Amino acid sequence: MVRPTRPHPDQLPLSLGSEDELEAIIEARVAARCEAESFVWKFRLVAIETVLMGVLIAAAGMALDQPPAMVARAALIVAASCLASGLLLLGLSVWSARLLARFKQRRAS
């Protein structure tokens, strides 16, 4: 037999009228959390891509018996340009998402 649990005295009461209201609240929270975490995940992908491109150029230069200074310079230039373009795209993505949200908000009101 399951005992009904009592809420903690400090807990605010949560009164939900229907399943639809509860589902709407959950969807809103999930959407907000996903939007907040999307920047971090995109930044991780840019960082991984940057490292992989730098290592790929370094490995190719070493495999072709190129001078180490030239290989290191080329790998750093490629990695830096990859990071710069990734951050630029990430910034444009955030900017366009905010612009779209403002546009939707203005249309709704």
Q: How would you describe this structure to a colleague?
A:
Helix 1 packs antiparallel against helix 2. It is built from two helices and no strands. It has helices spanning 19-63, 68-108. It has a domain at 40-108. 79% of the residues lie in helices and 0% in strands. The N and C termini lie far apart (51 Å). The protein is elongated. The protein has 109 residues and is mainly alpha-helical.
Biggest sheet, in brief? none
Residue-averaged pLDDT: 89
- In terms of structural class, how would the helical and strand content be classed? mainly alpha
Q: What does the radius of gyration come to?
A: 25 Å
Note the beta-strand portion.
under 5%
E-strand count = 0
Kindly state the percentage of residues in helix: over 70%
Query: What string gives the helices and strands in order?
Result: HH
Broad shape: elongated
Give the number of helices.
2
Uncertain segments are none
Distance between the termini: 51 Å
Topology overview:
Layout: H1 19-63, H2 68-108
Features:
109 residues, 0% strand, elongated, single chain, mainly alpha
Quick overview:
This protein is mainly alpha-helical. The chain has two helices and no strands.
